[in-house]
Design a protein that fits this description.
heterodimer; A: 319 residues; mainly alpha; MetI-like fold; two-stranded antiparallel ribbon; 16 helices; 2 strands; disordered N terminus; B: 294 residues; globular; Raffinose/stachyose/melibiose transport system permease protein (chain A); cell membrane (chain A)
Chain lengths: 319, 294
């Protein structure tokens, strides 16, 4: 994985070069004086470096700065308010709801999406007819835009014109309006999240299953293990790294979720389906509250970086 | 990590080599489960497409079935409309520019990190990888102000440049890992023959890097084609809207006429579906392998 490798790239370089071909290394160093490395560095690095610094790193730093001001984005930020924006965030009930909802997405992913993906992956990996076809169909929602998926499901959930309304009609029941009810809206959204992303997780597990050493399963066979025993005692433990990766993607995806919410509910009804990013958009961007919105961004940044670091350090250090 | 391409497919449920086949009943259960899931995936899509052929009252009574009377004009009016093609065109221009710059800047920077040791190179690489850790939305307000001050609000570049900037971490990571795994004999031989870094990059590295160019290209194209939040914030004129924004506007305008909205959605996702079915192997491999490795 990227993180473990990049923390100490110097060491890997030195070991590989030094042990295998010390002579070649020497020759190359002599020649490389002729082919100076500076022109290529000066030509190849600046485009990425400048763009990245100006549009990713600086805005993040500015967000930290703006977050201490009350500012509408015009002129210069002058009205210093200290930590007030942060206090307002943590006192805002819509924000705590957003945090809960982001957590719910991760929980639903762990409890429903990942088991479903793993189950489908084991079935598809067992050379059945039509495996390719099912793989294709299950992956299809993942390539669709979140906005389109959200809009399609807004139609599905519609009580008057949609499929859920139609099903209720078949049974002679009152059509439900899940997206308009604050008790059910978030669960309806979880359904769409799973519909859209289970195929991606399934592909991760298919890849993981393929990398399992055949001989281990054969050994289990010789020892007389049943299919389920083989799965529980051999396959599943060997898929540990894939499961951890899958959970990691679920966390990252949950923290970014925005596009799908907008067509479905826009964060409503009464803020029951806000996520971190829809909260930032609805309370910071649309009202042009640059200070407050930046503070939300900083909180989101801290959460993302803390989770990424601690998750990789605690759960994925051996992967 | 897991490598999709190199390992042979293995049977997970049946024991490989043991000659033991799945029992017929197990197989039937498996197919029932798979088909059920496939139905749940496909029915929303198919009813969306069919709904676009209905009248509103037909949709109300019969959201699942075939249209009682096929309203070809729902689709016809959209397909001859300027806005549809304009939005598709906008999305395409933004995506192509994004892909091109992400590939070029990413490959160039990654080449330096893969082959040249220079003062602070490890720190600089880690600096780029910070970008992998948080989404573009975190700093969206300062980003907007910066783009506004650069005079790029309501231009394609106002969307393209941030997308490229946020793609560089992924692009550098994938390219660097690939470049470093190319056989080092190539590099030695080229140097002995007096080939400089630039020529080596252009004539040897790039021609050998087609698979990774495809992977990075697919990831950034799909990301840009589907992107919503950046165009939403950076663009004001409807004439520059890419299609995900277009759907939202269309829905706002025709919010009482679901059948038109459904036809519009269907037509906007049609290119994605067609391309996906044509290039499914590359797209699935690119999106999953790319995600795993970065």
């Amino acid at each position: 994985m990227s993180m473990s490798e990049t923390t100490m790239p110097g060491r890997t370089y030195a070991a590989a070069d030094g042990q295998i071909r010390p002579r070649v290394k020497l020759q190359r160093r002599k020649r490389s004086l002729k082919h100076s490395k500076w022109p290529v560095l000066l030509l190849f690095l600046p485009p990425a470096l400048m763009l990245f610094t100006v549009l990713v790193i600086l805005p993040m730093g500015e967000a930290a700065w703006y977050s201490f001001y009350n500012w509408n984005g015009y002129g210069l930020p002058e009205q210093w308010v200290g930590w007030r924006n942060y206090q307002l965030i943590f006192r805002n009930s819509a924000f705590s709801q957003a945090l809960i909802n982001n957590g719910m997405i991760v929980v639903a992913s762990i409890l429903i999406q990942i088991p479903l993906a793993l189950w489908l992956a084991t079935m598809i990996s067992s050379r059945i007819h039509g495996a390719l076809f099912f793989r294709l169909i299950f992956f299809l929602p993942y390539v669709l835009a979140d906005v389109a998926a959200g809009m399609i499901w807004r139609f599905v959930y519609d009580g008057d014109f949609g499929l859920v309304g139609g099903i209720a009609h078949l049974f002679g029941a009152e059509p439900p309006y899940w997206l308009a009810d604050r008790d059910t809206a978030m669960y309806a959204i979880l359904g769409v999240v799973i519909w859209k992303y289970f195929g991606f997780h399934m592909m991760l597990f298919i890849a993981g299953l393929q990398s399992i050493d055949k001989s281990v399963l054969e050994a289990a066979d010789i020892d007389g293990a049943t299919g389920f025993q083989k799965f529980r005692l051999v396959t599943l433990p060997l898929l540990g790294s894939t499961v951890r990766l899958s959970v990691f993607f679920a966390v990252v995806g949950s923290l970014q979720l925005f596009d799908m919410i907008m067509p479905l509910t826009g964060g409503g009804p009464s803020n029951s389906t806000q996520t971190m990013v829809t909260f930032l958009y609805n309370f910071g961007v649309t009202r042009m509250q640059v200070g407050f919105g930046s503070a939300v961004g900083v909180v989101l940044f801290v959460i993302c970086v803390t989770l990424a670091f601690s998750y990789k350090r605690i759960f994925m250090r051996h992967d | 990590m897991t490598d999709i391409a190199s390992s042979p497919p293995i049977d997970a449920a049946t024991a490989p080599g043991s000659g033991q086949r799945l029992r017929a009943t197990t197989q039937i259960y498996m197919y029932v489960a798979l088909i059920l899931v496939a139905i749940i995936v496909v029915v929303p899509l198919i009813s969306t497409a069919l709904g676009g052929f209905k009248t509103l009252s037909d949709l109300r009574g019969n959201p699942f079935g075939m249209p009682t009377e096929w309203q070809w004009s729902n689709y016809g009016d959209i397909i001859v409309s300027q806005r549809y093609w304009l939005q598709m065109g906008n999305s395409l221009v933004i995506a192509v520019l994004t892909v091109f710059l992400t590939l070029a800047f990413g490959a160039m920077a990654a080449f330096c990190f893969a082959h040249i040791r220079f003062f602070g190179s490890d720190y600089l690489l880690n600096y780029f990888l910070i970008g992998l850790m948080f989404p573009a939305a975190t700093a969206i307000l300062p980003l907007y102000i910066r783009i506004r001050d650069l005079g790029l609000v309501d231009t394609y570049w106002g969307v393209v440049l941030p997308q490229v900037a946020f793609g560089t971490g992924m692009s550098i990571m994938l390219f660097r890992n690939y470049f470093r795994n190319l056989p080092s004999e190539l590099f030695d031989a080229a140097f002995v023959d007096g080939c400089g870094y630039m020529r080596f990059f252009w004539h040897i590295t790039l021609p050998l890097s087609r698979p990774i160019i495809a992977t990075v290209g697919i990831i950034s194209f799909v990301g840009s084609w589907n992107s919503y939040i950046l165009p939403l914030i950076m663009l004001n004129s409807e004439s520059r809207y890419p299609w995900p924004l277009g759907i939202m506007i269309y829905r706002g305008e025709f919010n009482t006429e679901w059948q038109l909205v459904l036809a519009f959605i269907t037509l906007t996702i049609l290119p994605t579906i067609i391309v996906f079915f044509l290039a499914q192997k590359h797209i699935i491999a690119g999106l999953t392998a790319g995600a795993v490795k970065s």
